[in-house]
Amino acid sequence: QVQLVESGGGLVQTGGSLRLSCTASGRTFSRKAMGWFRRAPGKERDFVAAISWSDSRTNYADSVKGRFTISRDNAKNTVYLQMNSLKPEDTAVYYCAARLSDPAVVPTTVGGYDYWGQGTQVTVSS
Question: Which residues does 22 contact at the CB level (< 8 Å), separation at least 6?
């Protein structure tokens, strides 16, 4: 089992920044690809970013490229999502996810991940 706990969400104005953190416990954090997804009100859970276990490969949704950066610190069992130049359309609940197999693969679909956190709310005001 892997437990994931997100933090760092909040209310920010358009153009502002936030850094989300996801801390894992339970099974070994390293050698697992990690991802961030988000669900806006009335919408499905969408892919945001993902990172392989070695940091050698990342993947981003087109809507966040150039604004968001995913990173990880295996020593701290934590993955981060630095969000800059935030827009009202970034408002959503953000979820952290972990993938058990193929740690070099960075899926962009919900089905590519095995464990999920409870989510943290990000609200961007206009």
Answer: 4, 5, 6, 7, 34, 36, 78, 79, 80, 81, 96, 117
